[in-house]
Amino acid sequence: MGHGAGMERLPKKAYERELLRLQAELVKLQEWVRVEKARVVVIFEGRDAAGKGSTIKRVTEYLNPRVARIVALPAPTERQRTEWYFQRYVEHLPAAGEIALFDRSWYNRAGVERVMGFCTNQEYARFLHQCPIFERLLVEDGVLLRKYWFSVSDGEQEKRFRSRLEDPMRQWKLSPMDLESITRWEDYSRAKDEMFVHTDIPEAPWYVVESEDKRSARINMIAHLLSTIPYQEVQRPPLGLPPRPPSKGYERTPRDMQTQVPDHAASLRD
Which segment of the chain is annotated as a signal peptide (predicted)? Predict the structure, then answer.
């Protein structure tokens, strides 16, 4: 069995209290990024159902979507398959004052593409060679790059798959390829180990998030991210509501000249 089996869950009250505190710090970080014109890239990788997506949701919950963007790319198009591999990711990198959160990233080639045979051995080898060079270029250019690997045991992954299969709200999170990852557990383990050997570099190290307990994983990842960026609270100019000027006789268009949304809520009040 995998590691961390039977790990005790963080109590909900303590989790929610600390999450809110960390989210307030993320808002401060966002303001610092905006004012300092920083560029932040956070990569979320890990096995299916390891908790990447739910962590990203908690990270962005109170952030401005113009500052913090989630990048979750679909499979490459025919044209993109003929481009330099990193090309389609480059256009999603942040400009000054932006944070890009990659829900999976260029590491697709070292994971799913490698295991499922979607790339050639030559393309895979070239990726392992180019990836550290690519990331060093980003870091050298001043990009703050953080890479998180969400680690989950085979037993816990299967449990999460099962609960997704039974939940109509979360079935979309499962694809046939996700389910096939159960039968290829060891292939994915080997691919991940090989990927780490080549891409866990001093300039852009991998940070492993123990993700057996989702609550702990979210708290630990956000706290760690905040600890690695030298942000400070930015003083915002005080805002006040201006007085409303007196009316100049405007009259609203009659409601029956516009298409109103039906009052569905009324049926709930009865």
Answer: none
